Task: structure prediction
Amino acid sequence: MMAAPIAATGTTLEPETPVALFPTRIFGGGVDNAQGRQYDVSRDGRFLINTVLDDASSPITLLLNWKPPTN
Result:
């Protein structure tokens, strides 16, 4: 994941040299338009990233129409 500082002078924006933030294993490299964007950044700078799993055989459990028991 890279970041590029932006310098603003009046109405002109000048991107500066990108720097590496941290390594990622984003599905599709993060740039596959067919997959859509695989990451997002919140206003406070925290990241949510869809990563490639180490073990593709890990099971997924999906619960549909679940309602908690009523007392």
Notes: The chain is about 0% helix and 25% strand.
